[in-house]
């Protein structure tokens, strides 16, 4: 936008912001906008019409040109058939032909020579490349004529045929030499697999010659080789692209292909010094791959623009079929695209020039017509700007009639300014009095606020101390009650379960898993009681630690916590890849992980997710231990609460005690591990526990060592 504003300023002598702020320019802009939109729409409609309809017309024309080229090739074969029919019916041919003794195994050599001389003369006069008389036996022995011999049925037959160089030489040595074409690598075409094409594409006619008895012992075999033949393509070009059918500098071309090789064409070469024998024609060049795929491989016509040797042409291609119905080549008709694009761009430039002229002329007329109207408005604007800057001036009388709306507006504005000046004086006096009263009242409120803040801070500190003392007292009583009331029943339950297992004997195997689960849970209850005592008197408990695999412990946690997870209707995602061993106390670690899982389940709404991950802890390519992550999509923890979640008795849940995370932190700290907490409101929370291969001495750790807080990322 800054670049546009700079260009606009240099062109029109006024900035874009100033133009937007001035009424005259806005009116000019609004007046010219419909004109500009109309003219631009006209240009785009014209461009669209040219692109769509002119393009369609070009493709329709080239398609018609292709039809004419195909028809001309058919006419070549019909003309050959007619020429051979004319020769066979001529008196001199019949006279020479009757000299042959069909029943004699040794034909009359003189008669054959006379016929050959006659056929050579006819070949030259008719423009054929070969013309010969061949017996039925020789035709049957020729693999190329055998199919035509089968299809003649006493009538002439014509068709296209691709012959190897040796078979061309069998017909005429000159044909074999004429068929050789140097293949040239061409843009947009695949690299050629050979350097010379020796095959020949011929149009061939086989006509039976019957004797007086109606028997056929001889055939006329004639035709022409398309390789390097310029007569046919030039004839079709002159027929299709006669003078006046194309724009100036546009070139109409026709080409015959053998497979993807141009064997007969009038597509010109700009420069081709290495092949002077090709007479400045693109003989031996290749068709583009996309045309080859559609026409020769898929057998469909191509009606579109295509790259022809060295330029883009509006092109039409159709497959050529030999006498067996096999695709052997293509016929092409097209004309160069550049002159049409030149005319098209020239039309757009002319139309754009007219648009600019009309636009400037319209703008000038609108500006001159609106100038007399805009001068009073501009004067009013100047007065308003001066009043805003503090000057005490008025618009006064404009050189307009009293009935003019601008004159009435100026009078009303002057009256409004007078009233505004009087009211400003009154407001100023009232404001001065109010300022004095506000200053007195503010000073009094500041003194009272400072005193109130001191009292509130003292009250808050006292309240926190009382609450902490009450909780510590309650904790002592609670621990004593739990130790007395729970340890004895758990001992009774454990003893009875052992007795039950002993009394059932072998029958205990059916419920052995349930009995073991009850024993384990009783042990867990005992461990929890020990943990509470351990929190209040941590020095009295030295829990044994052993080297453990973490994955089985996490699996057990998921089994024990499945009730809370299912109750909250959350999805559990496990990613357990840890393989390293770490020194931990298994029951205490179970207690920590269960506490984290239950907290995560309570933090997640229905249909949320919880991730449990265990992986090897590796830093600087050195294995330190194992890390365990519990991540949820819950409500998250605020920054204010995040730094207090490990304080004893601090909780945000109504039914919480505030001891779970405190006990968990104490257990991990005694193992020398680390706890990291990352949380973002309304995103979720991640608890990461780091456990080392060897447990560290917790006496060397500070009260909050290994504890880290942050945002969840």
TrEMBL record:
Q: Which residues form a coiled coil?
A: 410-455
This protein is called histidine kinase
Ranked from the top, the taxonomy reads: Bacteria, Pseudomonadati, Pseudomonadota, Gammaproteobacteria, Alteromonadales
> What SMART domains does the record point to?
HATPase_c (SM00387), HisKA (SM00388)
Query: Which organism is this protein's natural source?
Result: Shewanella inventionis
Q: What class of enzyme is it?
A: transferase
Domain HAMP intervals: 371-425
Sorted keywords for this record are: Cell membrane, Coiled coil, Kinase, Membrane, Phosphoprotein, Transferase, Transmembrane, Transmembrane helix
Membrane topology term: Multi-pass membrane protein
The EC number on file is: 2.7.13.3
Q: What are the Histidine kinase domain coordinates in residue numbering?
A: 481-695
A Pfam family assignment = sCache_3_3
């Amino acid at each position: 936008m800054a670049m546009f504003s700079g260009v606009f300023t240099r062109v029109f002598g006024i900035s874009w912001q100033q133009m937007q702020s001035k009424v005259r320019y806005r009116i000019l802009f609004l007046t010219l906008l419909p004109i500009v939109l109309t003219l631009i729409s006209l240009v785009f409609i014209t461009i669209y019409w040219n692109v769509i309809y002119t393009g369609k017309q070009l493709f329709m024309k080239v398609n018609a040109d292709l039809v004419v080229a195909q028809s001309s090739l058919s006419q070549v074969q019909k003309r050959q058939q007619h020429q051979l029919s004319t020769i066979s019916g001529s008196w001199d041919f019949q006279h020479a032909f009757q000299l042959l003794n069909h029943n004699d195994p040794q034909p009359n050599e003189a008669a054959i020579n006379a016929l050959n001389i006659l056929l050579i003369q006819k070949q030259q006069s008719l423009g054929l490349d070969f013309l010969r008389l061949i017996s039925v036996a020789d035709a049957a022995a020729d693999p190329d004529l055998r199919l035509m011999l089968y299809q003649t049925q006493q009538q002439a037959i014509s068709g296209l045929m691709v012959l190897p160089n040796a078979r061309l030489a069998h017909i005429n040595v000159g044909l074999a030499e004429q068929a050789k074409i140097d293949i040239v690598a061409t843009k947009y075409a695949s690299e050629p697999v050979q350097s010379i094409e020796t095959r020949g594409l011929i149009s061939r006619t086989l006509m039976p010659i019957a004797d007086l008895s109606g028997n056929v012992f001889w055939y006329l075999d004639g035709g022409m080789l398309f390789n390097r033949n310029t007569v046919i393509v030039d004839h079709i070009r002159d027929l299709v692209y006669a003078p006046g059918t194309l724009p100036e500098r546009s070139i109409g071309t026709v080409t015959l292909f053998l497979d993807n090789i141009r064997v007969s064409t009038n597509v010109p070469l700009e420069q081709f010094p290495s092949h002077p024998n090709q007479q400045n024609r693109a003989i031996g060049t290749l068709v583009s791959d996309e045309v080859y795929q559609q026409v020769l491989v898929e057998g469909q016509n191509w009606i579109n623009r295509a790259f022809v040797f060295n330029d883009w042409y509006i092109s039409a291609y159709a497959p050529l079929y030999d006498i067996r119905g096999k695709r052997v080549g293509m016929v092409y008709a097209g004309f160069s695209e550049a002159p049409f694009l030149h005319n098209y761009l020239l039309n757009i430039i002319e139309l754009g020039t007219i648009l600019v002229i009309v636009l400037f002329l319209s703008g000038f007329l609108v500006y001159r017509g609106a100038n007399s109207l805009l001068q009073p408005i501009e004067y009013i604007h100047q007065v308003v700007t001066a009043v805003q800057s503090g000057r005490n001036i008025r618009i006064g009388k404009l050189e307009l009639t009293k009935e003019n709306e601008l004159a009435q507006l100026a009078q009303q504005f002057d009256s409004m300014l007078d009233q505004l000046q009087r009211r400003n004086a009154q407001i100023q006096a009232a404001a001065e009095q109010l300022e004095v009263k506000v200053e007195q009242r503010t000073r009094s409120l500041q003194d009272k606020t400072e005193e109130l803040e001191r009292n509130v801070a003292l009250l808050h500190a006292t309240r926190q101390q009382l609450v902490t003392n009450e909780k510590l007292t309650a904790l002592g009583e609670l621990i004593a009650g739990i130790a007395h009331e729970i340890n004895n029943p758990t001992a009774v339950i454990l003893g009875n379960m052992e007795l039950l297992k002993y009394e059932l004997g072998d029958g205990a195997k059916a419920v052995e898993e349930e009995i073991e689960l009850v024993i384990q849970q009783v042990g867990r209850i005992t461990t929890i009681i020990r943990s509470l005592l351990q929190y209040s008197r941590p020095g009295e408990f030295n829990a044994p630690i052993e080297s453990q695999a973490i994955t089985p412990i996490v699996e057990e946690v998921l089994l024990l916590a499945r009730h809370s997870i299912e109750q909250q209707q959350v999805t559990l995602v496990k990613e357990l890849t840890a393989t390293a061993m770490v020194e931990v106390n298994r029951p205490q670690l179970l207690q920590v992980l269960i506490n984290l899982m239950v907290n995560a389940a309570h933090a997640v709404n229905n249909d949320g997710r919880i991730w449990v991950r265990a992986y090897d802890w590796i830093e600087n390519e050195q294995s330190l231990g194992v890390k365990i992550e519990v991540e949820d999509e819950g409500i998250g923890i605020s920054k204010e609460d995040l730094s207090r979640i490990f304080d004893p008795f601090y909780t945000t849940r109504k039914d919480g005690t505030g001891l779970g995370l405190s006990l968990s932190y104490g257990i991990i700290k005694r193992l020398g591990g680390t706890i990291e907490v990352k949380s973002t409101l309304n995103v979720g929370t991640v608890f990461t526990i780091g456990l080392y291969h060897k447990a560290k001495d917790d006496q060397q750790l500070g009260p909050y060592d290994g504890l880290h807080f942050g945002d969840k990322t």
